[in-house]
């Protein structure tokens, strides 16, 4: 018995739920008349388990419901080991015109971005402890809080998953998926909607959460610094201090963006469904008042499904990997994705607080190396820093941030938009037809092995005429 089709994918529109991984890849389908005969089908081999688990292939791990059906004949592409030491394989059988998968790539992708594995994880603090922590937080001296976090990290160590500082699991899955799709079509290359506008290799956004009124005053200096290197950024404001309207006007007139950092700096928004629904109208009012299109949750607390109901066009609360937050985890994606209609922009650089205060780094080295790695994946580089005292409000930390800006400004062919422009772009790309001139096409090429998959930007793609 064969399982359901995975990524059979010519659906471009319509009411049917679109495959989220197909949306990320954005293959430009060939004209219908080019298909000579029946093409190879990509399918999950047999019935899947009821519960998801880890499938591990060397350094790569994914979380999905495995199909344990033994497929005989054909050629094995990848073998995955399960926690019980059994193995399952992806294989192609030209005789049967079938590419058999031991899991659904779309499901694995959804599980990454929604951090589904955390349901079975004991890391971090329980909700009860978190509530207690936040009730008591104002009474705990800041230094003691920092000390407590350091102890927790020392005791638990860095997790195996997501990897820190960088986890490229979604990029790995995307390459695997592209490989399977192309091999099934009998092709070695195909056009796809390039990740970024024009021929940009990657994108960089700078975002700040403003924790205090003093932080907002210091935001002006930070904006000066960024402008010096050709950047504009976003400042996410909280409702727990007075926002000086003169400063806001100055920032927006200079092309900076204002976003939301919530009504209270605690876990209340996501503490219960009732609390979420109670705060939402006030958030909407605040967004309208500030002209804000984006949101980052205080301390990056989140409930994945609810992010799609925020009164904004994008959210940036999910780390790609951040084991240092009170709600540790990560979506493992260096690309934006959708939660309902809301675009999620994962942050991909370690936070200033993590780097300088928790880990005691004395340079921008890790930020710069991480940037290079994300650019190599053609991903979104997103820095999350704070203008406040104790963060970039301190001279030494701001100097290191300057070093990052210098390194970023020296990168070539990198898109440097505002966060809201990335969100708008991601929606445009997602809905673009093949002939949309605003969306250029890259080429995905596959080699012999599943590890040989390359995403080539439009400028290098021979098939695409110069724009
Ligand atoms: Zn904050």
User: What count of structural domains?
Assistant: 3
Instruction: Tell me about the largest β-sheet.
Output: 5 strands, parallel
**Could you tell me how far the N terminus lies from the C terminus, measured between alpha carbons in angstroms?**
48 Å
What portion of the residues fall into strands of 2 or more residues?
A: 15-25%
- Identify the CATH homologous superfamily of the largest domain: Glycoside hydrolase/deacetylase
- Structural classification: alpha/beta
Number of strands: 18
User: Which molecules other than protein and nucleic acid are bound?
Assistant: zinc ion
| Whole-angstrom Rg | 23 Å
Helix content: 25-40%
Per CATH, the class of the largest domain reads Alpha Beta
What sort of overall outline do the alpha carbons produce when their principal axes are compared?
globular
pLDDT averaged residue by residue: 90
Helical segment count: 13
Low-confidence stretches: 1-15, 462-467
| CATH fold label of the largest domain | TIM Barrel
CATH architectural arrangement of the largest domain: Alpha-Beta Barrel
Describe this structure in words.
Mean pLDDT is 90; it is low at 1-15 and 462-467. With 467 residues, the protein is of the alpha/beta class. It folds into three domains: 1-123 and 159-194 and 440-467, no CATH class; 124-156; 202-426, TIM Barrel, CATH 3.20.20.370. The protein contains 13 helices and 18 strands. Helix 2 (105-113) packs antiparallel against helix 5 (169-185). Helix 9 (304-307) links the parallel strand 11 and strand 12 (314-315). It has helices spanning 20-25, 105-113, 127-136, 142-156, 169-185, 213-228, 245-253, 273-290, 304-307, 352-358, 365-376, 395-409, 419-431; strands spanning 41-44, 53-57, 60-64, 75-81, 87-93, 98-101, 189-193, 202-210, 234-237, 257-260, 294-295, 314-315, 337-339, 342-344, 380-385, 414-415, 441-446, 453-456. The strands form five sheets. Strands 8, 9, 10, 15 and 16 form a five-stranded parallel β-sheet that branches. The structure holds zinc ion.
């Amino acid at each position: 018995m064969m399982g359901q089709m995975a990524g059979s994918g010519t659906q471009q529109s319509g009411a049917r739920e679109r495959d989220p991984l197909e949306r990320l890849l954005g293959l430009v389908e060939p004209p219908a008349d080019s298909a000579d005969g029946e093409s190879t089908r990509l399918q999950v081999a047999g019935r899947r388990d009821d519960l998801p688990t880890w499938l591990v292939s060397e350094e790569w791990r994914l979380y999905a419901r495995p199909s344990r059906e033994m497929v005989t004949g054909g050629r094995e592409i990848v073998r995955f080991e399960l926690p019980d030491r059994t193995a399952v394989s992806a294989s192609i059988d030209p005789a049967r015109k079938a590419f058999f998968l031991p899991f659904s790539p779309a499901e694995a992708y959804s599980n990454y971005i929604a951090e589904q594995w955390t349901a079975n994880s004991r890391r971090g603090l329980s909700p009860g402890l978190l509530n207690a922590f936040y009730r008591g937080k104002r009474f705990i001296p800041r230094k003691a809080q920092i000390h407590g976090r350091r102890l927790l990290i020392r005791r638990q160590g860095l997790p195996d998953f997501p990897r820190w500082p960088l986890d490229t699991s979604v990029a790995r899955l995307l390459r695997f998926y592209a490989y399977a799709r192309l091999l099934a079509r009998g092709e070695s290359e195909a056009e796809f909607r390039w990740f970024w506008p024009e021929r940009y290799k990657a994108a960089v956004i700078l975002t700040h959460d403003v924790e205090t009124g003093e932080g907002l005053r210091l935001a002006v200096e930070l904006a000066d610094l960024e402008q010096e290197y050709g950047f504009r950024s976003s400042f996410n404001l909280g409702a727990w201090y007075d926002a000086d309207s003169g400063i806001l006007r100055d920032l927006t007139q200079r092309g900076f963006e204002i976003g939301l950092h919530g009504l209270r700096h605690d876990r209340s928004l996501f503490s219960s469904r009732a609390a979420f629904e109670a705060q939402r109208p006030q958030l909407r009012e605040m967004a309208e008042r500030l002209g804000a299109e984006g949101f980052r949750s205080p301390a990056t607390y989140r409930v994945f499904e609810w992010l799609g109901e925020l009164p904004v066009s994008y959210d940036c609360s999910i780390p790609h990997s951040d084991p240092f937050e009170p709600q540790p985890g990560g979506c493992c994606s260096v690309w934006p994705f959708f939660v309902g209609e809301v675009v999620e922009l994962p942050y991909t650089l370690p936070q200033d607080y993590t780097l300088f205060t928790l880990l005691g780094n004395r340079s921008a080295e890790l930020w710069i190396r991480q940037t290079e790695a994300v650019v190599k994946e053609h991903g979104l580089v997103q820095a999350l820093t704070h203008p406040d005292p104790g963060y970039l409000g301190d001279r030494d930390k701001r100097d290191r941030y300057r070093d990052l800006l210098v390194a970023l400004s020296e990168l070539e062919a990198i898109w440097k938009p505002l966060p809201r422009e990335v969100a708008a772009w991601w929606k445009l790309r997602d809905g673009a037809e093949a002939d949309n001139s605003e969306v250029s096409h890259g080429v995905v090429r596959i080699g012999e092995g599943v590890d040989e998959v390359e995403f080539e930007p439009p400028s290098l793609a021979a098939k695409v005429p110069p724009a």
